[in-house]
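Final report, results section. Input specification for complex C-07:
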Amino acid sequence: MSINSLQERPSREEATVTQEEAREAVFRTEGLNLWYGNTQALHNIELDQRANEVTAIIGPSGCGKSTYIKTLNRMVQMNPIVKVTGKVYYRDQNIFDRKFPVEELRTRVGMVFQKPNPFPKTIFENVAYGPKIHGIRNKKLLAEIVEESLKGAAIWEEVKDRLQENAFGLSGGQQQRLCIARCLAIEPDVILMDEPTSALDPKSTLKVEELVQQLKSKYSIMIVTHNMQQAARISDRTAFFLNGEVIEFDETDKIFSNPSDKRTEDYITGRFG
Amino acid sequence: MAQSVSEMIREKRKSSKRQKLEKLVPGLLFAAASVSVLTTVGILLTLVVETFMFFTEVPFSQFFFSTEMQPLNRSEPTFSILPLLSATLLSTVIAMLVAIPIGLTTAVYLSEYATDRARRVLKPIVEVLAGIPTIVYGFFAFTFVTPVLQNIIPILDRTNILSPGIVMGIMIIPMVASLSEDALSSVPLSMREGAMAFGATKFETTVRVVIPAAISGIIASFVLGISRAIGETMIVTIASGSNKNLTFDITQSMQTMTAYIVEVTSGDAGAGTTAYYSLYAVAITLFVFTLAMNMLAKYISKRYREEY
Amino acid sequence: MEQNYINQEEVSRRIPGRLAVNKVVRGLFLTSTLFGLVVLAILLYDVITDSWGWIDWQFLTSVMSFNEEAAGIIGAISGTLWLMLIVGPVTMIIGVATAIYLEEYVKEGRVRTFFETNVANLAGVPSIVFGLLGLTVFVRLMNMGSVVLAGGLTMSLLVLPIVIVSAQESLRAVPSYLREASFGMGATRWQTIRSVVLPAALPSILTGMILAMSRAIGETAPLIALGIPALLIPLPSGLFDSFTVLPVQVYYWTIDAALNQNYASLAAATIVVLLVLMFILNSAAILIRNKFQQRF
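Structure output:
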């Protein structure tokens, strides 16, 4: 498989498109509990992320949705007071297994953050950062990866003439797409997005949403969002979190048209949150 | 290219070189961090061991309770810290008599009265005073302040404790001013507004409300200033001479603890002599005093930190 | 029953007095603030007039001499430069490494409190005590003598706490989302520090370093305690050569000033050179800070 196929990686979709249920689970969460010190933030979470699907996680502030997504690449454990029980499998490997290095997990599972967070480096260096730290030094190859990743994040046309400029010169929306490109450069399997559009204007938000739709064919995406319209627009399945619990997890259409839990209905109809 | 990026990454990951580096780095950093701990240990060990040697030769009581300090007397040297202590005490008191009123009022002016523009100009200038090397202050005390004072106080000796005390105070002004100003400006505006709303003038607000609210930070700045004055060396070495008689006459030459250390180390007291060991006994006293002051300052600012 | 506790007339009558007090006090406080300024001006004026006519090419490039007219400070200048050559790299490496250890590896807890308390206490130890440490350990125990290396190491230990604290502040100013971005891509801790955190903190670290150097070259007491001689010595050409530095030179000339007014002039001239050097360092620090100020 060549580097150029980064965009047209043959997806499993073709084989399984008819049988939704047969799609393999990329992430399987079983009985996950999480504490910040003595405060329990997540209660017995059970959730599957399937390949080539977009899962949206919605819920009011403080419901644990960001905490959950940050557990999947173990960023949450950078806070020393965090304690975790239960299991999360990434493609059948328990991510909490001591033999599974966290760095390896994170090369397979990319993350896009709430606030665009480019490095104070050039646009090129931002995208090349991941491949470089993982040992890719060949200049020609790096240039190719950077181009493909920027194309993948639909920002190539805007920045191709200014790759050597500081990334801080970009607009907020461009910065966020740059961060997505940076994430694509290490060819992750899953992309976690933690409210990626909350700091963006509506136009940039739309661009990122379109991008998520395109990326779906090659990546599995989990996106935390405050914005219910956004969840309805772009996700295949939606999980509703409340007070650290999964209240309901189902097809997005079902959640928004016919939720089975009263609390979900209250939330999506705007009665609280 | 036959491989995808992710495959290449997976392959590179296997190299153990990086893993080793990752394990090695914290160790190296810890070693670096230990240098400062070893410095403390080195200081304590040096002072304690050599002081112990000193007290095998000189009785404890002589050092702390006699008043005769004649370390270089060939036939019968005597050692007493009291003359050095009194000199240190006097120079510190004089310095604080200068530094506290001027430092505190400067802080009040900068934090309460000055406009933003005035503060931006004045504050850095006041802080330049803190950056001037102490040797320069020593030169200033000896060649300028003492002659000027001699015109006013004719009996003033060419070396005396008054002039270096004053100059030391000037040196400490920025320290008191800037720490006190930090304390004053962290008093919330609402407290000032509360006082001014019922007609208090700025001065009344400052004295009745702002200063009491910031008092722990202000006092801590005084204590740190005292610690600084006790440990200051070059100004007193140059301008207060080396008279080791116990006296409280500030117009006379006196030798502080720090100046004594300089005199003995730069003189010809060979290693192993009692005079040499006396250095460490004096230094440990100095060390204990400054450490106590620094800890007191920390305690005050912590213990009485106002919760706004 | 109608009773006024506050007599409005009385209040009004007192107001002008209170306002006058406020005005007078304001003037007093301003005077006191200006006092520092005035002293600074007098000090500089004194030093400059004393040195007038003494600073010339001959003074800057000649070695020490007992003949005042021929005396120069090239030895002290080169000694000061040698000192910087040691203090710079030593404190940079140890200080920044310590700061990285405390900020990026230990984070919270007792270990960090222990190290930080230690650094804070060291920063308050009088410089003369560091001189005694250097005298005991480097000069005598290690038998170096009062050479460049002994002086450099002593001075490094003295300014190390300053460098550590300022480097810690620089690292703390690097926003955590940059670290997160790097960790999120599978970078290890050291990779993150080396390629993201350090480059972002570097200008600020350098600024702190230069200010610490400026402090080091003005320090006198520890070097005098090491037994740096006031003799005619050849220019140092290596780590194990005898040396003197500008402030020590000032010291010996100042204490001889009572004997001969020319020595006061030589001391003043040396002070001017020292202050100019410090001014250059401080300006460099400010320039770096302004030029590379990151907007995160």
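Chain A touches chain B through 20 residues (CB under 8 Å). The radius of gyration of chain A is 18 Å. This concludes the modelling results for the funded period.
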